TrEMBL record:
<dbReference type="InterPro" id="IPR001757">
    <property type="entry name" value="P_typ_ATPase"/>
</dbReference>
<feature type="domain" description="HMA">
    <location>
        <begin position="5"/>
        <end position="77"/>
    </location>
</feature>
<keyword id="KW-1278">Translocase</keyword>
<dbReference type="GO" id="GO:0046872">
    <property type="term" value="F:metal ion binding"/>
</dbReference>
<dbReference type="InterPro" id="IPR036163">
    <property type="entry name" value="HMA_dom_sf"/>
</dbReference>
<dbReference type="InterPro" id="IPR036412">
    <property type="entry name" value="HAD-like_sf"/>
</dbReference>
<dbReference type="Pfam" id="PF00702">
    <property type="entry name" value="Hydrolase"/>
</dbReference>
<feature type="transmembrane region" description="Helical">
    <location>
        <begin position="434"/>
        <end position="461"/>
    </location>
</feature>
<feature type="domain" description="HMA">
    <location>
        <begin position="84"/>
        <end position="156"/>
    </location>
</feature>
<keyword id="KW-0104">Cadmium</keyword>
<dbReference type="InterPro" id="IPR023298">
    <property type="entry name" value="ATPase_P-typ_TM_dom_sf"/>
</dbReference>
<keyword id="KW-0812">Transmembrane</keyword>
<dbReference type="GO" id="GO:0016887">
    <property type="term" value="F:ATP hydrolysis activity"/>
</dbReference>
<dbReference type="InterPro" id="IPR008250">
    <property type="entry name" value="ATPase_P-typ_transduc_dom_A_sf"/>
</dbReference>
<keyword id="KW-0460">Magnesium</keyword>
<keyword id="KW-1003">Cell membrane</keyword>
<keyword id="KW-0067">ATP-binding</keyword>
Amino acid sequence: MSSNIKTELILDGLDCANCTVKIETKVKNISGVKSASVDFVSKKLFLEVNSKDGLPGIIEEVKVIVKKIEPDVVVREKIIQKAEKKVVTLMGLCCANCAVKIETNVQDISGVKSASVDFVSKRLFIEVNNKDELPSIIEEVRVIVKKIEPDVKVVTEDEKKEQVDNSPGEGEKNRKELIRLSIGAAIFGAAMVFKFSTTIEFTLFFISYILVGGEVLLRAFRNILRGEVFDENFLMSIATIGAFSIKQFPEGVAVMLFYQVGEFIQGIAVNNSRKSISALMDIRPDYANLKVGNDLQRVSPGDVKVGDLIVVKPGEKVPLDGKVVEGKSMIDTSALTGESVPRSVEAPNEVLSGSINKNGLLTIEVTKEFGESTVTKILELVQNASSKKAPTEKFITKFARYYTPGVVIVAVLLAVIPPLVMQGITFSESIYRALAFLVISCPCALVISIPLGFFGGIGAASKNGILIKGSNYLEALNNVDIVVFDKTGTLTKGVFKVTEINAQNSFVKDDLLEYTAYAESYSNHPIAASIIKDYGKEVNKNEIENYDEISGHGIKVNVKGKEVLAGNIKLMNKENIVFKYVEVAGTVVHVAIDKKYAGYIIISDELKEDSREAIKGLKQIGVKKTVMLTGDNKSIASKISEQLGLDEFYAELLPVQKVEKLEMLDKEKRSKGNLIFVGDGINDAPVLARADIGIAMGGLGSDAAIEAADIVIMTDEPSKIVSAIKIAKRTRRIVWQNIVFAMGVKLIFLALAAIGIATIWEAVFADVGVTVIAVLNSMRVIKVGEIK
């Protein structure tokens, strides 16, 4: 007897949700198919067939069905080799221009699907087509990096600890650099202040020049040998050697000294920026106190297994997700959710890794391994976000690639043409102008500050409990036209609660609630559970007789010798009870006792406290339309829509119909506008994937929703969407300040250098000084306290 065979088919080009249902239905009817399911998000068809022998024929029938329903969709069998992602650290990377060159060259390696260098975190993200080719690709990466930046080391995760331990500290490097620059500056000062013979004066200038700029000259020479000409080392070398060639010795040394001091300050500013952003996400626990018998062992969080007991002392971070089994304490979850108010926990409450235990001693049973824990997921989302670059970043990368060679060509023309066509300008003067022009041309201010700004924006969002999976999504938040919400668990709490008890005909509220609770006590429906919870007392089931649950109507039962009817309008009509008709945003349970109408109880799914604030805030920041999609009935949806001030709502929708409505709404946005969908459950995954920006609410609720979403809100607060958009707008504002400032200053100085007004000294400020200012400006993004 042959066992069932499972296989997966890829439906390339599938973008019609309605067609997904049609394909699934038709495939299920193929002879030999035991089950079939189409996942619209991943565009996969999951098949289970009775026999392996019949599989080829079934696949051919599937292709015919798909061709008939969706002619443009291509059916192919699942590729065995999946794309593999790898992250390596580029230790010692301090040249933004070189980062761009490394990224470009790695992308050209055979077998590499995509490559992205994050200059801020010094990491290279690589995606390869074949996992087996990864070792050879990493070796090619090492060769490329060695060629472009000989002092940079390519370090994999396995090598990282050893490399860090063996590498000299940042402070030690800075100290040596400072000593070298100080000695060079002292010799230069002596040559400028004291009267020496021409030979000794030249010698002192030359020694100070070599001390200060020798490293720059050496790097430029190495780069030229490798064919890497157009970078800041080459530009500074040409400019200063040119100054020496026209006997401007003091200026040649001074410019190199100014440049190196500027680079030193720039390096410190960039490193401080990196540390500031890293500090925002300083939530990774260093250790766990594992309980072994009566003893505690300090171990790595990665060594703790599910079911183990750990002890968290006051002031320590919770290292893994788990539930409290002993102790009571206040915990600070601000690093995860952005909430400043600590919350109380005790057995059997759940606690999340990354939160901080404030006062009591907690014993926690671990429920997730470290690799699956909240803290690990958050760090992976934030750290990998920088691999998905925003359009502005991509533009600047391309711009830098063509800008510097273009300026060098203009500089050559500036050195040669003016003396030939204009009177009164010597070659010495025109060369000096061209040298100043060269110094200004380096685009470092843009290449460094723009990724730093986006990384800071992602860090600021994470500090607010908003996880943005890429700079591209952060930038997309600036152009939101339409926000579409799911209802249950997104705008409402998703928890049924008794919101009103209305007694009629001389009955009192307490009696009405008691009889209804007794009537509902055998039901496991959420509405019944909410009534029993609100009653709050123990139900004596010995006082219940003749229990009869009437499908689609309600319950008929004898309680304490009285006949109780509890149900909907249909039950009241069936039993000929004269009742009061009410229309509210909730479920109404009508109750009759001994054939006399006793009143009604309203059970509602409560609105979240900040749902109104969220809708109001979205309107204030320029969102044109807010819409709600729900599977709930029309009257409830209408009331909620009215209470929140939504522009539109669509009720009684299946998950597939939500996608259809979303596609309809998508046509209403501007050509450059974006549509957001906000949901929380697994049934929202198709809609989250279809929207321009998918936002998953209640970040830890559904893994499928988190996977499909582009942004994850760690709390259940819809108002965090407003915060995310404000952070995005603030980030874009600062990034564009840097672009306008850097380009404006450079264009002014390029013009001044071309007409002979700007000196090389001023040119160095236009390069290094502008970079430092732009980096410091980028750091304003992470001031999360200003985001409300």
